[in-house]
Specification:
By secondary structure, this protein is of the alpha+beta class. The chain is built from eleven helices and eight strands. The protein binds a DNA duplex through α3 and α6. One of its GO terms (molecular function) is DNA binding.
Length: 421
DNA sequence: AATTCAGCCAACCGCAATGGT
DNA sequence: AACCATTGCGGTTGGCTGAAT
């Protein structure tokens, strides 16, 4: 029954690594790169399976690993990201670039989870535990909307994480070719990015609408953290410090302030003048340049939407591919697309708001030319963007803000060495 | 000093995803 | 399309360490 363990070969060592083994592995990878993990142990003279070598390298020996105590900022980041992403440790780890997923997972399980539990917060839902007992219509609606928003942001973060991974691989591969790297890329030259919101993520299982209409491909910083900052959710000194030692990969996968950062398309394919990239599923192509700090500019960013299906102007299924150099971004949707936080269908002439989207949802702020997502509860046929937000919507967003704020405040007021923990 | 207990974390296991043929 | 090899990921385990008794 089942697959035989990879290390069941006689003679292969298991358990803790010795300094000698570490040295062998390190020396080999520094000289040759890891290449095929399966082939590595014999080449490196190690009595280990490739999997064990890979784990040892990625979780311990890699030179770009930060070890030691987690800072308060890192703790906050983990909690915030966990609220959005659930137990997707690798995705969380990409926003704490010097921490491994394993370390974050361990830290969550041994510290943060217990802390939240003691504070009366469900570490899975990130809501007060007695919230489940309060199931008035408004609250259940709020929960559903939060879930939907989290789903959106989750997809976006995942996309960013993958882009960052790919770009790192590219970078490392390039360095290898130049003979100056200790890393090696095991991935092929062509890369792909798949965002499928209809996945089997456990946390999202409860969500009822597995659709994605907009998948932002970049933001200058982690939206939630920015929302925290912009909304004054952090203490003033924390605001002034930005996000502390957080090294969000999104900040390195950023658009230059002066670059033509346009991904907005119209039905005619004409570029807009927006200062943030937007993706619109309108079946035309556009061009833009994407620049990655410290790397070559990505030329010839193109997108095409060739598989969207529309019914009465409502996009029902879509596969959109963006090609950006070696990178290919594919977004697929199943089922009718709707705006987050509402059941209003996404229509072909709706502009997808990227950077503002989730922040505005949280902060209930509208901006300039774009139709705010918070307005989408109205009739989407109002193409003038004059949809109305009603009072209960305002309460909803205020509640959301207060909820997230309360989590952060609780954590802030509960340092690790507090007797509470 | 010896034993027990709890916390921590490196490492393992197995499933899922991906890529190649 | 099917199969296989490889890699990625998240859950879990087991050993080490220090505190408590």
């Amino acid at each position: 029954m089942g697959r035989s363990p990879c290390c069941d070969k006689v003679g292969l060592k298991k358990g803790p690594w010795t300094p000698e083994e570490d040295q062998k592995l390190l020396a080999y990878i520094e000289e040759h790169g890891h290449g095929s993990w399966r082939a590595l142990p014999s080449k490196a003279g190690l009595q280990r399976c490739g999997k064990s070598c890979r784990l040892r390298w990625t979780n311990y020996l890699r030179p770009d690993i930060k070890r030691g105590k987690f800072s308060l900022q890192e703790e906050q980041t983990i909690i915030q990201l966990h609220a959005l992403l659930g137990n997707r440790w690798s995705a969380i780890a990409t926003h704490l670039s010097k921490r491994t997923d394993n370390e974050i997972k361990n830290y969550w399980n041994t510290h943060l989870k217990k802390r939240l539990t003691k504070m009366g917060i469900d570490p899975i839902t990130h809501k007060p535990k007695n919230d489940a007992l309060l199931s008035s219509d408004g609250q259940s609606k709020t929960a559903a909307n939060l879930s939907h928003m989290a789903q959106w942001e989750s997809a976006r973060l995942e996309a960013e994480a993958r882009l960052v991974r790919e770009s790192k691989l590219r970078s490392h591969s390039l360095q290898n070719q130049l003979g100056s790297s200790t890393f090696a890329s095991s991935s092929s030259a062509s890369t792909s990015l798949l965002i499928n919101n209809n996945n089997n993520n456990k946390q999202e299982a409860a969500s009822t609408t597995p659709t994605t209409t907009t998948v932002p491909i970049q933001s200058r910083s982690l939206d939630v953290l920015k929302a925290w900052n912009n909304g004054g959710w952090l203490k003033s000194n924390e605001v002034s410090n930005g996000v502390g030692d957080l090294e969000s990969p999104t900040s390195t996968l950023s658009f230059s302030e002066n670059a033509p950062p346009i991904m907005t398309t119209t039905n005619s394919g004409i570029l807009g003048e927006n200062t943030m990239p937007m993706i619109e599923f309108v079946g035309s192509s556009s061009g833009c340049s994407v620049k990655e700090e410290g790397e070559q500019e990505w030329k010839g960013y193109e997108s095409s939407n060739n598989l969207a299906e529309y019914k009465d102007g409502i996009m029902e299924n879509s596969v959109t591919t963006f090609t950006c150099g070696l990178h290919e971004l594919t977004m697929s949707m199943e089922g009718a697309a709707t705006w987050p936080g509402s059941h209003e269908p996404f229509r072909t002439n709706d502009h997808a708001i990227v950077e503002e989207g989730f922040i505005n949802l949280l902060l209930n702020t509208n901006s300039g030319n774009h139709r705010s997502l918070s307005e989408c509860g109205g009739d989407s046929n109002n193409d003038d963007g004059s949809g109305s937000g009603n009072g209960s919507d305002g309460d909803f967003y205020e509640d959301n803000k207060n909820y997230w704020n309360s989590i952060l405040n609780l954590v802030n007021s509960s340092p690790s060495d507090s007797p509470m923990f």
